[in-house]
Specification:
The complex is a heterodimer of chains A (641) and B (370). By secondary structure, chain A is α+β, with helices and mostly antiparallel strands. Chain A folds into three domains: 55 residues; 193 residues, Penicillin-binding protein 2a (Domain 2); 356 residues, DD-peptidase/beta-lactamase superfamily (Beta-lactamase, 3-Layer(aba) Sandwich), CATH 3.40.710.10. Chain A has 25 helices and 23 strands. In chain A, the strands form seven sheets. In chain A, strands 2, 3, 4, 5, 10, 18 and 19 form a seven-stranded mixed sheet that branches. Chain A has a five-stranded antiparallel sheet with strand order 12-11-23-22-21, sandwiched between helices. In chain A, strand 22 and strand 23 form a beta hairpin. Chain B has a domain of 206 residues. Chain B is built from 15 helices and three strands. In chain B, strand 2 and strand 3 form a beta hairpin. In chain B, helix 2 runs antiparallel to helix 3 and helix 14 packs antiparallel against helix 15. The chains are: A alpha+beta (641), B mainly alpha (370). At the A-B interface, helix 1, helix 2, strand 1 and helix 7 of A face helix 7, helix 11, helix 12, helix 13 and helix 14 of B.
Chain lengths: 641, 370
C-alpha cells in the first residue's frame, strides 16, 4: 500500500515535471520569437529605421480649425472666436513645485486668487502632461514682460489661442450652451467615435445646447503642419502644411432681439417661453430664466461661481424650456377640446348645468370660478375656462382615449428638437402608473384620477417646449413639424449653404370643422374670455388659453396668493398663436409662481405677438422692465381661470 | 544580537530571486532617468517604491503555506465581491470603470485578483488532489470565468486576459488534458484568423476594436491616431541597432516622439539606447527570474506550492512578453506595463507580493529538509 502511494506520488511528480518542461519550452519559444523580432528590427531593418529616426526631425504639429460661428436669423453673432495670448503651465515639466512657480509668476504677471482656484480645479480634471492656462487674455505689456523672463520658467509658455465668446452673455445661454475643456468622459466618447485624431490640438468641446448638439459641424477638421525641429526640439521651419477645414457656421431660426426682449420682460422672475413658427417648426425664441453667463465655462469655471450657480434655489443651470416638467393646468383644455370633437363625444353637443363643482363618487371637484356659470356648453368652455365642463368631459372620454390621443401630439414624448438633454414629461395613463410605481395599490388607476386630468392637473406634466409644439400643431391645423433651432449650416470654405429642411413629423387626421371650432374657442379667450383685458386693442386676431398650475394642494381651503409663501404660489401659463386664421407664430409661456395665467404669463405673450406681428417693442421696456413684469395680482381677481 | 536580527531578516528570502530582482531594479533606475529626461525626482519616487515593494515581498515571504491555503478562499471571495462593487458603484475615469472609492483613496480590485486567482485555483486543486477528475477542471474554469468576465466588462481587455492566463497556467500545470489543449490551440488560431480579417472581425467585435487590430497589422492606416504609438515605438527600437545609441542619447526619446515613454512604452527607450545587446541582456534577466520561479515550483513538496509557484512564474513571463511584444509591434497595444521597469508603484508592489509568495513556497521546502 505504502509502496503504491509512493509510486503514485512519483508518477504525479513525473507528470508535473513534464508540464514544467513544456512550460519552459513555451517560454523559450516566445522569447525566441521576441528576440527574432529584435534582430529583424535592429539588424535587418536597422538602416531603414535609422533613416526614419533621422527624418523624425520632422514633427507633425496639429493645426486646430477655427470653430464655426453661431448667428441668429438676422445674422447677429451669438458665439464667435477671438485670438488672445494665454499663459500656460504644463505641470509635469515644472522645475520646482507648482505653488512656487505660481508665486514667482505672480511677480511678473497678475495672477489672482480666482485664477489659482480655477487652475487647481482644471488640474484635477486633466492629466499632468497637458498644458493648462493659468491666465487668459494677457495684455501686450504682460506678454513682453514674461517673454523677457521666460528662461526662468521651464514648463510655462505663452500661447496664442482662439477663444470662444458669447457676446450676449446670459441671453439665450441655455439655447446656445457653451464649450468647455475636454475631459475624460469626452475623450472616451471621441475614442469610441474614432474622432480622437481629429481632436489632437483641440482643448475644447461643446458641452451644452447648440454647441453640444452641433459639435461635429462646428468643430471642423484638424489640419497638420510638418515642422522641422532641431536637436533641442525647437521648430525651425515649416515644410508642408495641410490646412484645417474650419468648422461650419450655423444660422438659427431664433430672433435674438425677440429673445432678449422676452428675457427682459421676465425680469427677476423664473420661467420659460418657447415660440415656434408653426409652418416649419423653426424655433423663434427659447427662453429659460434665470440664465447664466456661458463665458464663465469656457476656460474652466472657478469653484465659487460654480457653487453659486449649482446651489442656487433658482436653478439657473436648468433649461426649463427643455427639461422643466410642469402640470399644464388649463392650457391643457384646447387639447382636450380637439380630442373630444374628434372622438365625437355626446357632451360636445350638450348644455350642462354648472353649479361650480362636479361630484364624482364621494368626491367634490371644485371649479375655480366660484358658484359656476349656471350652464355651460362646448363653445363657451374654452373662453371661460370651465373646470366643471372638462371634469365631465374627461370622465366621458376615459383615460385610455385621452392618453392615446395626447400621445399623437407628442405630449409625454420627446419632440426630437435639435438640442441635447430633452425630457419627456409625463402623459399619465394606467400603463404609465404600472411602470412608475411598485406596489399594486400605487399601480392601480383610480377613476377619480381621470377627473383632474381633464383640467391639466393630476400627474400631467409637460415641458414648455412640448406645450408650444402641441399648440403649434393646432395652429397649423394638424400638420406637425419637428421643432428645430438651427435653420442653415454654412460651409465657409465652399460658401455652400445647406438649409435644414423642415421635417414634417405627421399630419393628424383631424376634421377641418373640428379644428376651426377649437380655434374659435381659443379666439374667444382673447375676445371675451379670461384674457380679454390683456389683448384689448390688438389689431390682429389672437387665439390663446390661460392656465394656472397648482404647486401646492390647498385641501379645500381658500387660495389667497398673498398669504402663501411665494414659492408655493401657482404657476402662471399662457399658450397662444396668431393670426388665428393663418398663424405665423405659436408659443407657450410659463411664469413660475406667477399666480393666475392671465396675470403674469399672458402679458408676456401679448408683447411677443406685438413684436413679431407688428414689429412693436414694448414701450415700458425702455423705461422700466419691472413695471411690465409685475401686473398686480389683485386686479385680476374677477377673472376666473 | 545583530546577527540574530540579520538572520531573521534574510531567513525567508530566496537569495537568487532577490539578486535577479535587484539587477532588474538597477536597469529600471537607469532607463527611467533617461526616459524622464533626467528627472531625479521621478527616479527617487521609483526607488522609494522599490523599497516599499521589497518590504511587501518580505512580508509575504514570511507567511507559511498553511496560512496561504487558509487565505485563498477568503481572498478570492473578497476579490470577486469588490469587482461586483466596482460594477455597481465604481469610479469611471478614461471611459473605464475600474476603481472603487473608499473614502481616502481609490483602489483597483483587479490588482488583488492577480494574486487571488492563482492562489484560489492552486488551493482548489490541492484540496481535491486525491479525487481529481475532469469535473474539477470544469469547476475551476468557472471560478476563472467569473472575475475575468467582470474585469472584461469594466472594460479592461488587457488585465482580463492576463488574469485569465494566470488561471489557465494553474489548470495547465494541474494536468489539463493534452487533447483539450490541442483543441483550444486550434480554436485560438481560428479566433486569431477571424479578428485579423476585417470582414470577419466586424461580425464578432465592436467596430472600434477591429479598427485597433487593423491598425496593429498596418500602423500606416492611422499614423496620427493609434498607429502613432506603434510606428514611433518600432522606429525607436529599430534605429537602436546592435549596440544602441547610448544612454541618454536616444533621439526618439528626447525629441518627445515616444508617447508614454516612462510607463507602458519604456521598453522603446531601452531598445533605442541599449540596442540588441541590451535587449538580449534584459531577456536573459527576465528568463533568470522565470527559471528560478519554475525551479521553486518543481521542487515544492505540495501540489498547492507547485501550482502556485508555477503559475506566478509563468504569469510574470506573460507580462514581460505582452509588453515587449506590443512595443515592438507584434501584439496589439493593450495597457500592460513592463514588469518591474515601468514607472508606477501599484504594479511593482503586486509583482513583488507574488515574488514573496514564491519565496514562501521555496522556504517551506527548506524547513522540511531541516
Amino acid at each position: 500500500m505504502a509502496r503504491n502511494e509512493l509510486k503514485n506520488s512519483l508518477a504525479e511528480r513525473y507528470a508535473f515535471q513534464l508540464r514544467i518542461v513544456t512550460a519552459v519550452l513555451f517560454v523559450l519559444a516566445l522569447f525566441g520569437l521576441l528576440f527574432a523580432r529584435f534582430v529583424w528590427l535592429q539588424v535587418a531593418q536597422h538602416d531603414k529605421y535609422q533613416t526614419l529616426a533621422e527624418a523624425n526631425r520632422i514633427s507633425l504639429v496639429p493645426v486646430t480649425p477655427a470653430r464655426g460661428i453661431i448667428r441668429d436669423r438676422n445674422g447677429v453673432v451669438l458665439a464667435h472666436n477671438f485670438s488672445a495670448y494665454t499663459l500656460e503651465i504644463t505641470p509635469s515639466k515644472l522645475a520646482d513645485s507648482l505653488d512656487e512657480t505660481i508665486a514667482r509668476l505672480s511677480k511678473i504677471v497678475d495672477v489672482t486668487g480666482k485664477d489659482r482656484r480655477r487652475f487647481k480645479k482644471l488640474m484635477e480634471e486633466t492629466r499632468d502632461f497637458e498644458s493648462l492656462p493659468i491666465r487668459t487674455r494677457l495684455s501686450d505689456e504682460e506678454v513682453a514682460r514674461f517673454a523677457a523672463n521666460s528662461y526662468q520658467f521651464p514648463g510655462v509658455e505663452i500661447k496664442a489661442r482662439l477663444f470662444r465668446q458669447y457676446p450676449f452673455q446670459e441671453v439665450a445661454s441655455h439655447l446656445i450652451g457653451y464649450i468647455g475643456r475636454i475631459n475624460d468622459k469626452d475623450l472616451a466618447k471621441l475614442d469610441e467615435d474614432g474622432e480622437l485624431a481629429n481632436y489632437r490640438g483641440t482643448d475644447h468641446i461643446g458641452k451644452l445646447g447648440i454647441e453640444a448638439s452641433y459639435e461635429t459641424q462646428l468643430h471642423g477638421t484638424t489640419g497638420f503642419e510638418e515642422v522641422e525641429i532641431d536637436s533641442g526640439g525647437r521648430a525651425i521651419r515649416t515644410l508642408r502644411r495641410t490646412p484645417p477645414q474650419p468648422g461650419k457656421d450655423l444660422t438659427l431660426s431664433v430672433d435674438i432681439k425677440l429673445q432678449e426682449m422676452v428675457e427682459k420682460l421676465f425680469g427677476e422672475r423664473r420661467g420659460s417661453l418657447v415660440a415656434i413658427d408653426p409652418r416649419d417648426g423653426g424655433v423663434l425664441a427659447f427662453v429659460s430664466k434665470p440664465g447664466f453667463d456661458p463665458n464663465l465655462f469656457v476656460d474652466g469655471i472657478d469653484p465659487d461661481s460654480w457653487k453659486a450657480l449649482n446651489e442656487s434655489p433658482d436653478k439657473p443651470l436648468l433649461n426649463r424650456g427643455l427639461r422643466g416638467e410642469y402640470p399644464p393646468g388649463s392650457t391643457f383644455k384646447p387639447f382636450m377640446a380637439i380630442a373630444a370633437l374628434e372622438g365625437n363625444f355626446p357632451l360636445t353637443r350638450q348644455t350642462i348645468s354648472d353649479p361650480g363643482y362636479f361630484i364624482y363618487g364621494n368626491n367634490r371637484f371644485r371649479d375655480s370660478h366660484k358658484g359656476g356659470y349656471g350652464s355651460m356648453n362646448f363653445d363657451r368652455s374654452l373662453p371661460l375656462s370651465s373646470d366643471t365642463y372638462y371634469y365631465q368631459l374627461a370622465v366621458q372620454m376615459g383615460i385610455d382615449y385621452i392618453a392615446k390621443f395626447m400621445a399623437t401630439l407628442d405630449l409625454g414624448q420627446l419632440t426630437g428638437i435639435d438640442l441635447p438633454g430633452e425630457r419627456p414629461g409625463v402623459l399619465p395613463s394606467p400603463e404609465w402608473k404600472k411602470k412608475r410605481f411598485r406596489t399594486p395599490a400605487q399601480q392601480k388607476w383610480y377613476s377619480g384620477e381621470t377627473v383632474s386630468i381633464g383640467i391639466g392637473q393630476g400627474y400631467n406634466s409637460y415641458t414648455p417646449l412640448q406645450m408650444a409644439h402641441g399648440i403649434a400643431t393646432i395652429a397649423n391645423r394638424g400638420v406637425m413639424f419637428r421643432p428645430h433651432v438651427v435653420a442653415t449650416v454654412i460651409d465657409k470654405s465652399s460658401g455652400k449653404q445647406t438649409r435644414i429642411e423642415p421635417q414634417p413629423e405627421r399630419t393628424l387626421p383631424w376634421k377641418p370643422e373640428n379644428i376651426e371650432r377649437v380655434v374659435r374657442g381659443m379666439v374667444g379667450v382673447t375676445q371675451y374670455g379670461t384674457a380679454t383685458r390683456i389683448f384689448a386693442g390688438a389689431p390682429y386676431v389672437a387665439a390663446g388659453k390661460t392656465g394656472t398650475a397648482q404647486v401646492f394642494s390647498l385641501r379645500g381651503g381658500k387660495y389667497n396668493a398673498k398669504a402663501i409663501n411665494e414659492r408655493l404660489r401657482d404657476h402662471s401659463w399662457f399658450v397662444a398663436f396668431a393670426p388665428a386664421d393663418k398663424p405665423t407664430i405659436a408659443l407657450a409661456v410659463i411664469v413660475e409662481n406667477g399666480g393666475f395665467g392671465a396675470a403674469a404669463a399672458a402679458p408676456i405673450a401679448r408683447q411677443v405677438l406685438d413684436y413679431y406681428l407688428l414689429g412693436k417693442m414694448p414701450a415700458a421696456l425702455a423705461a422700466d422692465a419691472s413695471a411690465v413684469a409685475s401686473a398686480p395680482v389683485a386686479a385680476q381677481e374677477d377673472i376666473s381661470d | 544580537m545583530i546577527k540574530t536580527i540579520w538572520n531573521r531578516i534574510k531567513q525567508p528570502i530566496d537569495p537568487w530571486l532577490f539578486l535577479f530582482t535587484l539587477l532588474i531594479f538597477a536597469v529600471s533606475a537607469i532607463v527611467l532617468f533617461s526616459a524622464s529626461n533626467r528627472d531625479l525626482d521621478k527616479v527617487m519616487d521609483k526607488v522609494t517604491f522599490m523599497g516599499i515593494s521589497l518590504g511587501v515581498m518580505w512580508f509575504f515571504a514570511n507567511i507559511s503555506q498553511q496560512t496561504l491555503m487558509r487565505l485563498a478562499l477568503p481572498a478570492y471571495v473578497v476579490g470577486v465581491a469588490l469587482l461586483v462593487a466596482v460594477a455597481l458603484f465604481g469610479v469611471t475615469s478614461h471611459g473605464a470603470t475600474r476603481w472603487l472609492n473608499i473614502g481616502i483613496t481609490r483602489i483597483q480590485p483587479s490588482e488583488l485578483m492577480r494574486i487571488a486567482m492563482p492562489l484560489m485555483l492552486a488551493w482548489f486543486f490541492h484540496h481535491f488532489e486525491t479525487t481529481l477528475n475532469w469535473k474539477h477542471f470544469v469547476a475551476a474554469a468557472l471560478l476563472m470565468v467569473v472575475p475575468v468576465g467582470l474585469i472584461l466588462k469594466q472594460p479592461d481587455l488587457g488585465t482580463s486576459l492576463l488574469i485569465a492566463s494566470s488561471g489557465f497556467y494553474v489548470l495547465f500545470l494541474a494536468g489539463l488534458s493534452w487533447r483539450f489543449l490541442a483543441v483550444m490551440g486550434v480554436a485560438g488560431g481560428a479566433l486569431a484568423y477571424t479578428v485579423t480579417h476585417w470582414e470577419l472581425c466586424i461580425n464578432i467585435l465592436q467596430e472600434y476594436q477591429c479598427r485597433r487590430i487593423a491598425t496593429m497589422l498596418d500602423p500606416m492606416q492611422d499614423p496620427l491616431g493609434a498607429g502613432y504609438h506603434i510606428i514611433q515605438g518600432t522606429i525607436a527600437i529599430g534605429s537602436g541597432g546592435v549596440l544602441g545609441k547610448g544612454w541618454l542619447n536616444g533621439t526618439q526619446t528626447h525629441l518627445d516622439f515616444i508617447p508614454e515613454r516612462t510607463t507602458d512604452f519604456i521598453f522603446a527607450v531601452f531598445g533605442e539606447e541599449f540596442g540588441l545587446l541590451g535587449n538580449g541582456v534584459l531577456l536573459v534577466l527576465y528568463l533568470l527570474v522565470i527559471g528560478r520561479g519554475l525551479t521553486i515550483a518543481s521542487r515544492a513538496p505540495t501540489l498547492f506550492g507547485r501550482l502556485l509557484a508555477g503559475a506566478i512564474a509563468l504569469n510574470f513571463f506573460t507580462y514581460a512578453f505582452v509588453n515587449m511584444g506590443m512595443v515592438s509591434g507584434i501584439l496589439p497595444v493593450v495597457g500592460v506595463p513592463l514588469p518591474l521597469i515601468s514607472y508606477g508603484g501599484t504594479s511593482m508592489v503586486s509583482i513583488l507580493a507574488t515574488f514573496g509568495l514564491l519565496m514562501s513556497v521555496g522556504r517551506d521546502r527548506k524547513l522540511m529538509k531541516g
